[in-house]
Amino acid sequence: MDSIWIKGGARLKGEIPISGAKNAALTLMPCALLTDEKLTLANLPRLADVDTFSHLLNQLGVSTKVEGVKPGEYGRRMTMRAGDIASTIAPYDMVRKMRASVLVLGPMLARAGEATVSLPGGCAIGDRPIDLHLKALESLGAEIELAAGYVKASAPKGRLSGGDFSFPVVSVGATENALMAAVLATGRTQLFNAAREPEIVDLCNLLVAMGGKITGMGSGHLVIDGVERLHGTTYEVMPDRIEAGSYACAAGITGGSLDLIGARPDDMRATLHALSQCGLILEFHDRGIRVSADGDLKPLALSTSPFPGFATDMQAQFMAMLCRASGDSFLEETIFENRYMHVPELRRMNANVDIHGRSAIVHGVDTMTGATVMATDLRASMSLVLAGLAAEGETEVLRVYHLDRGYERLEEKLSAVGATIERRSAG
Ligand code: UD1
What we know:
Belongs to the EPSP synthase family. MurA subfamily. By secondary structure, this protein is α/β, with parallel strands linked by helices. The chain has helices at 22-28, 48-59, 92-97, 105-112, 131-138, 172-182, 198-209, 241-254, 269-277, 315-322, 343-347, 378-390, 401-406, 410-415; strands at residues 3-7, 13-17, 38-44, 63-67, 76-81, 89-90, 114-118, 143-147, 150-154, 164-166, 188-192, 213-215, 222-225, 233-236, 257-261, 281-285, 288-292, 301-303, 328-332, 352-356, 359-363, 372-374, 394-398, 420-424.
């Protein structure tokens, strides 16, 4: 199994191109199921999760064709076509590998009138149920049965009908499933307390480009007027705000200066605010954002919340960076119940962090030290890479497959800005 080896201590300096957003890609790809015409996505990141999603789509009868990228370029184009839906079953071994597989539920139900999708079960960061996905679809008339670990959903008379649903908790995935289902339903759907993440706006923009009728984009109140059919289009995936934020933390923790090429400030205001509270200098230019260290990092207090709040997907990376701040920081995780899995590993690198339920106190230390550490989930893995970049000595991050799910060619991007980092294959 591959690992990432890092020799810490270099101040990173230079440009990092920001790839297409993983979480946007994973909700734009299932839109191929909504039409029998071709859907082409440009700027798709080269990630294991994108490949897994494309295999799932293949199993459902969607053809996928990838156009190669030239050396040194990032992103690629994928053309998908769901002429017919050959199968409406998303099996356990797919959903188990990648929870986002449940995002085929809404579009399959809308297009084929039925869908059978494995329940995802737990994952490293918590319980993560899909009850809200199912309740939202029920409000569109879906009939849902749970049996043998699967959700079996059907639309009476083959078509969903518009309805209103108010989310008791903001859910990105449930909002996405509901949107993809509602675009082809009869009549009007209103979603209240919908997620407002930029990836949801990206999804709405694609659905509108395909002929969908949606208003309220970017707000918590989405109104969808169902249409008879959608058509194909070509659409560019938005830049990855979490990747950009992660590399911003790399500039901070190494005392360096990085230009995040293609990053969009409006997608990441809370992250940028936190970076500047930490004492980092931010400069905005027409190609992206420059993040530069300016003396010691300052401690801060952060609480995760749905967009436009501070993203839970940035919590682990900020924690790594705050390990080097001069003073005590306070973090609170309000979205997932088990999202401090990186803490025991960071402690092995000399971090001083106390956990009290969903809160963490990060006592800044002068020195982090290299160690062999184990990645537990995607963002946790990135926090270990960040710590390794700043640590004295060598760090080896095991279980790199987590990183490959969400960071396109991480070691290439980091070595291009001065890091001593390489991928090592075991055996
Ligand atoms: C998405 C992102 C993930 C991010 C998360 C929160 C993708 C592929 N993943 O995950 O990177 O960390 O948003 O920003 O886009 N919940 C329920 N019932 C449900 C659904 C969710 O109780 O049916 C709860 C969850 O357990 C969690 C909260 O709602 O506590 C938010 O989860 P949600 O926004 O749905 O996360 P995902 O869509 O799974």
